[in-house]
Amino acid sequence: MIKFREKVAYGLGDMSSSMFWKIFGMYMLYFYTDVFGLAPAVVGWMFLVTRIWDTAADPVIGVLSDRTLTRWGKFRPYILFGAVPFAVIGALTFIVPDFSDGGKLVYAYVVYSLMMLVYSLVNVPYASLLGVMSPDPKDRNQLSSYRMFFAYAGSFISLALVEPLVEIFTNIGPAPSPARGWVMTIAVIGTICATLFLLCFAGTRERVAQIEQKKNRVRDDVHDLLRNGPWWILLGAGVAALLFNSIRDGATIYYFKYYVLQTESVRIGGWLVTWSSLYLIVGQAANMVGVALSAPLSAKIGKKGVYIGAMAIATVLSAVFYSFTPDQMTLIFLFQILISMCAGSIFPLLWSMYADIADHSELRTGRRATGLIFSSSSMSQKLGWALGGAITGWLLGFYGFEANQVQGEGAIHGIRMMLSWLPAMGTALSVIFISLYPLGEKRVREVAAELERRRAAQNGQ
Prior knowledge:
It contains 14 helices and two strands. The protein is an all-alpha fold.
């Protein structure tokens, strides 16, 4: 039984990751077009090239972490030594250098690539840690739920902080400077992120070792992975779900700035936030509700049933979203809450399913490749965000978007599509994939029991 404080410590790791990742998803495209000064189609290609390259690095990091042996374990050292670089390079990503247009593009490619690589160096081992903290499927479901709850809490905090801090730091000098506002804001948030990662390292433990302590060949691990049917299915479902999330997130600021045309701020306590920021914050709160519902619902109808139901509802709601007009703010926010609850409920299930797949693979092959299997979760995340970010940038360019200008009818149509029909296609595809997933609740329990019996026999119990 994993103690409460260790569950919280594990959750703090994804709180840190999500604070940065949500900023990348919500604001990166906007930053590069409206602050950095790049064309949206150019940014779309940069996202695709850098993220696909980084996606290919994830399995390598998974293999390396599987073979890491230290007094801290296999996966925790990456969290310890990656925390500070994670924060520093994150801040460098939001610097606007005084270069030519070509020089700025090169800078963006290099630094953004470094940021994605460091993100993988920390987060592939962090995700893999779930598979070795406990062999109990119930513990894993709880850890996954804690992880996602804290992830959405981190996103909530970062979204609440970003725009007010950018406003403060933009106006702190002798002349307003959005470039200064962004880099100083990310430096503050990066410091928080590094601290959370260090707390995660200090508060977690690795307990599950593979049954046969023999040296696995990389070729064998990769061969086993490529023959793992459930892994392919979950990879496809994860990519589709991230397409849904990334397209909606990336287009939100454009939706409010150029379609809703709501520029007034809303006062919450002592904070002034824009309507777009409030929309995103409300979505994160709804995500947290979805996470809280995920475990009790999956205990009743199973992970697969919850996943299919949530994504099917999100598909219908997203399609309806296109019909909303700028004066229907109540419906816009209501549907944001409902869609976000659906999204929040499925991501804990994905992480828990990856742990189940690691057990399934070990039982079938006699080899445990937790890091390699969990690297696919990071792969699906990166690939989904790569395709989603690229598609968003390309569509803005295709429909004639021009930054900081009044948009034509075509551009407005494209922005509305990115909040509705395009995300709906992602959720529908995710439903198709997960309907083929073969590891039901009964089979997962059988696999866990057999592995536990083998470990007990190996230890002479």
